[in-house]
Amino acid sequence: MVTAKKAAISSFYAVDRSEILGGGRFGQVHRCEEKATGLKLAAKIIKTRTAKEKDEVKNEINIMNQLDHVNLIQLYDAFESKNDCILVMEYVDGGELFDRIIDESYRLTELDVIQFTRQICEGVRHMHQMYILHLDLKPENILCVNRDAKQIKIIDFGLARRYKPREKLKVNFGTPEFLAPEIVNYDFVSFPTDMWSVGVITYMLLSGLSPFLGDNDTETLNNILACRWDLEEEEFQGLSDEGREFVTKLLTKEKNWRISASEALKHPWLADPRLHCRLRTQKQQRPAGARDPTDK
What we know:
Largest sheet: 5 strands, antiparallel
Number of strands: 9
Number of helices: 10
């Protein structure tokens, strides 16, 4: 169990402040090294000038302490000072999954997307079994372990919440294009809220497109509330029926009708080895959605 030490991080770790690994609303992540062992780690430096900000970091530490899964980033140590808190976490160097979506030279096959989606669902299932909602799932919050392997870890539990069935939880934060309809409506959130985001991520991995993104936030939120999306774009040509059904079962406006992480992992798209074998041999691993020149 990690608790925030009121000691100087420099006594234990060398933090390379010149190298920024990532950042967000919280601050920045730097590469660091444990002085005693030489172990490479990542230091997330969070500005905490108010009691509320400090409590938010303590919540993040508390949540990360409860999670132990190969597809979730692990907390290693924590430090607290007057103006900031520093979380020391395991280091991975494969970059954001988002980078692979937008990289024109990196074409994902449907089988690649299945591999990524399965791991996302496995990480989410573990969180949900521990009664934790992530509430900020998006490609920027999924890191690849290295440049070559298709292994991922979910990061950033800064907005995560413990789910207590008797306490009806409402939230009003997140990134517009990944918000579930119940967040937009300021309605109660629960496990299906994360599964909507998994649906958006899967859609993006398959196509490079964002299903609800409008010209501005208002249009994006209206698209979400109307549940206005389809798989008719050229990028989805060649997508298996199982893949289409999988996305459809997640991007469902009524949250009680969405499949859970456990159900997603049993869905044929993620679980049927015969389908995976067919996709492996089919059309020499064409990118998901790419048109086969032999197709009439």
